[in-house]
UniProtKB/TrEMBL annotation:
Keywords: Disulfide bond, Glycoprotein, Immunoglobulin domain, Membrane, Signal, Transmembrane, Transmembrane helix. The keyword DNA damage does not apply. Residues 1-21 form the signal peptide. Gene3D superfamilies: Immunoglobulins. One of its GO terms (molecular function) is protein tyrosine kinase binding. PANTHER family: MHC CLASS I NK CELL RECEPTOR, PLATELET GLYCOPROTEIN VI. This is Glycoprotein 6 platelet. The keyword rRNA processing does not apply. The chain crosses the membrane at residues 271-289. Residues 40-96, 126-188 form the Immunoglobulin subtype domain. InterPro entries: Ig-like_dom_sf, Ig-like_fold, Ig-like_Receptors_ImmuneReg, Ig_sub, Ig_sub2, Immunoglobulin_dom. GO terms for cellular component: cell surface; membrane raft; tetraspanin-enriched microdomain.
Length: 317
């Protein structure tokens, strides 16, 4: 029996690969909330499910409720408390269903009074310094979330009563931005308070070493020297002759200050800049000593406050 031609063998292999691909798992879709998954009460929001081209049927469902829509989007014109929760979607091609998308948490904000957010010791922090953003509420919430404008998700959700600390150690320029926090209860994880007033965190200055500062002072001294000190032959000479006596009269006009004055100005400028560099070095040494001393101090013991009752939910229209 003669072997099969190469072209027929390649055709059979391609058919096998197509059959295997048809019986393989479909890629899961993605689900997103527009404009955001944090939606204030009474505001609109749209849930959008996205799958590959040629999908036969989409299904978007709310978990735990048994409710679903056979379409790729869900438009909510007025956000209410009962809309908050977890959602997912999937699609169907032929007789096969795709894996479900990642779960989306749709959160209703504005259900409670906003907490307060503050920065300690200050909202202006030098590079490499430490800062703590403190979120506090007058109600007995045990969950807090901190958001930065431009980031997708919260930093953390610590479990403490009435307030939470969000420490940032060794800050960099990437920590600069506008922050807000929310408070809520673990018993109603999808009903959050209104956002706090914003706190703008600024990382001031640049992280320069003392050697870099000295080099910049030296460079400025060189520029000052070149600008204020001129050579001695920078005089202009005027020569006038008279026809009767054939005598030559030489007059000198000075276009720059005398050498003694320039040298004195240059010396004073040097002293001022050297003193400025010394003050900067002493200031940096003081910052390093203060940081080292503060790290050795033990953290104060936190006393857990007595739990207060949660505020009532707003009425559902």
């Amino acid at each position: 029996m003669s072997p099969a031609p190469p072209a027929l063998f390649c055709l059979g292999l391609c058919v096998i690969q197509v059959i295997q691909a048809q019986h393989g798992r479909l890629p899961k879709p993605s689900l997103q909330a527009l404009p955001s998954s944090l939606t204030p009460l009474k505001k609109p929001v749209t849930l959008k499910c996205q799958g590959p081209p040629g999908v036969d049927l989409y299904r978007l469902e709310k978990l735990g409720s048994g409710e679903y829509e056979d379409q790729d989007f869900l438009f909510i014109p007025i956000m209410k408390q009962n809309h908050a929760g977890r959602y997912r979607c999937s699609y169907q091609n032929g007789s096969r269903w795709s894996p479900p998308s990642e779960q989306l948490e749709l959160i209703a904000t504005g259900a409670f009074t906003k907490p307060s957010l503050s920065a300690h010791p200050s909202s202006a922090v030098p590079p490499g310094g430490d800062v703590t953003l403190q979120c506090q509420s007058r109600y007995g919430f045990d969950q807090f979330a901190l958001y930065k404008e431009g980031d997708a998700g919260p930093y953390q959700k610590p479990e403490r009563w009435y307030g939470a600390d969000f420490p940032f150690v060794t800050v960099t320029a990437a920590h600069s931005g506008t922050y807000r926090c929310y408070s809520f209860s673990s018993t109603s994880p999808y009903l959050w308070s209104a956002p706090s007033d914003p706190v703008v965190l600024m990382v001031t200055g640049t992280s320069e070493t003392p050697s870099q500062i000295l080099s910049e002072v030296s460079l400025s001294l060189t520029k000052v020297t070149r600008r204020h000190f001129r050579p001695l032959n920078s005089f202009t000479h005027k020569v006038s002759t008279t026809e009767t006596s054939k005598n030559v009269t030489v007059s000198r006009e000075v276009s720059s200050p005398p050498f003694g004055f320039a040298h004195q100005h240059y010396t004073k400028g040097n002293l001022v800049r050297i003193c400025l560099g010394a003050v900067i070095l002493i200031f940096l040494a003081g910052l390093l000593a203060e940081d080292w001393h503060s790290r050795k101090k033990p953290l104060p013991h936190r006393i857990r406050a007595v739990q207060r009752p949660l505020p009532p939910l707003p009425p559902t229209r």
